[in-house]
């Protein structure tokens, strides 16, 4: 029996009847056509399926669509459109931090959440934040570089505002 | 893999949960964070016909000091255990354990109650609640009871929860200001289940240990209280000598499984090394 689910996806209210066995990832990909959220292992190991649920990264393969009732979901499509991760994407591109790109949307979710918590993470902290994200292509170094560079760049852009506040 | 089909129902009250559970005796599973249930269904380790979502039950939410204890609701997510100031202050072993539990995104969904109810022997929180001498609040159709952590973890994935009962909260006795704590584990990679782990707390009077509580995990079918190692510490300062005595006593406390890839003597040796590290690092809470 299908269950009616109300969510806000990338800022727009969505009401859909879903089968309980549909994961949030299936719902986003198959029902809403948002295929930027990828599925690798479907068991919580690879991190390709990360989306933001109420602002925090979660595995869309491990959250049932019915569990997202009342939730606010942001996918890579939404974050791209608002420009929220434009600098991270730019930095990944500059540093060749993606090859096939399968892991990239998940990497960006983890990176965005990390930088929101910790503006200047160390390389160890970046690696720790990416512990649930597999990349089979790049060997991770470039991804860590790109995230560190974005953190530094965001600190510079934010600095003048801080000085003003201090005055 | 995609999940096998099932029926999904939301319980708004404990009574409703018991009712929905008893209707399909033996074939219903409660759903909290779902981060153990869903992967195990994807792997076809289980295929219940009904999932009962208990996350909306008000009783399972919230973190508050109640008299002599800190009550931490079952629905508290791992990420909140890690960041909540009351947990850091009154249940520091849980806060110290949290960064070792899985990966950041899993910590945003997994719940303390689901983790304890599952009772994975490699899991961090069960050992932390054992070392904290916490009590587990259980509610069922027959009423509410509070089970000491020492009597809660019975066997592999087996707890004092009777079928249909709900783990409502954890009650941690408020610690004195000068109690010292430490937690650590050895894992192949950060976020992996531990090869061995230790949670410990101790009370000292004039530099002498008067009480110690030590629990290990990933050393058997349940988290294990290290009774002999605790006794070895009492009556002396925390010194290289008393640490060595506690490490030597671990052989009496542990009977680790013999796995061809990870023989029992090696696990015991890792446990000794880790116990030494942890006892060297005992500190009052921040
Ligand atoms: C990739 C991955 C890595 C992980 N690594 C670790 C790790 O390193 N350490 C670790 O400890 N865990 C780890 N976990 C498990 C994770 O912490 C789980 O979220 C947690 O063990 C279960 O919590 P949950 O809320 O998701 O429970 P659920 O999956 O919802 O439920 C688990 C079980 O408990 C029962 N249950 C749930 N809540 C209650 C309740 N209130 N009362 C009675 N029964 C209840 C359910 O019926 C079910 O049988 C990992 C998980 C994944 C997917
Ligand atoms: S598809 Fe979700 S973690 Fe791999
Ligand atoms: S770029 Fe191919 S998996 Fe990461």
What is the 3D form of chain B? globular
The domain count of chain A comes to 2
Proportion of residues in β-strands of chain A: 5-15%
Give helix and strand order of chain A, one letter per element, not per position: EEHEEEHHHHH
Q: Name the ligand types.
A: flavin-adenine dinucleotide, FE2/S2 (inorganic) cluster
Assigned CATH architecture of the largest domain in chain B: 2-Layer Sandwich
> Strand arrangement, largest sheet of chain A?
2-1-5-3-4
- Uncertain residue ranges of chain A: 163-167
Number of strands of chain A: 5
Structure explained in plain terms:
The complex is a heterodimer of chains A (about 170) and B (about 290). Chain A contains six helices and five strands; from the N terminus they run ββαβββααααα. Chain A is of the alpha+beta class and about 170 residues long. Chain A has two domains: about 5-80, Roll (Ubiquitin-like (UB roll)), CATH 3.10.20.30; about 85-160, [2Fe-2S]-binding domain (DNA polymerase, domain 1, Orthogonal Bundle). Chain A has a five-stranded mixed sheet, with helices on both faces. In chain A, β3 and β4 (about 55-60) form a beta hairpin. The longest helix of chain A is centred in the C-terminal third of the chain and has 26 residues, at about 140-165. Chain A starts with a strand and ends with a helix. The model of chain A is unreliable at about 165 (pLDDT under 50). Chain B is α+β, with helices and mostly antiparallel strands and about 290 residues long. Chain B folds into three domains: about 5-55, Uridine Diphospho-n-acetylenolpyruvylglucosamine Reductase, domain 2 (2-Layer Sandwich); about 60-170, 2-Layer Sandwich (Uridine Diphospho-n-acetylenolpyruvylglucosamine Reductase, domain 3), CATH 3.30.465.10; about 185-280, CO dehydrogenase flavoprotein, C-terminal domain (Enolase-like, domain 1). Chain B contains eleven helices and 15 strands. Chain B has helices at about 15-25, 35-40, 80-85, 85-90, 90-95, 105, 110-120, 125-130, 225-235, 240-255, 265-280; strands at about 5-10, 30, 50-55, 65, 70-75, 135-140, 145-150, 155, 160, 165-175, 180-185, 195-205, 210-215, 225, 285. In chain B, β4 and β5 (about 70-75) form a beta hairpin. In chain B, α9 runs antiparallel to α10 (about 240-255) and α10 (about 240-255) packs antiparallel against α11 (about 265-280). The radius of gyration of chain B is 19 Å and the shape is globular. The N and C termini of chain B lie far apart (about 45 Å). In chain B, about 50% of the residues are buried. Classes of the chains: A alpha+beta (about 170), B alpha+beta (about 290). The structure holds flavin-adenine dinucleotide (FAD) and FE2/S2 (inorganic) cluster (2 copies). One FE2/S2 (inorganic) cluster binds next to loops of chain A.
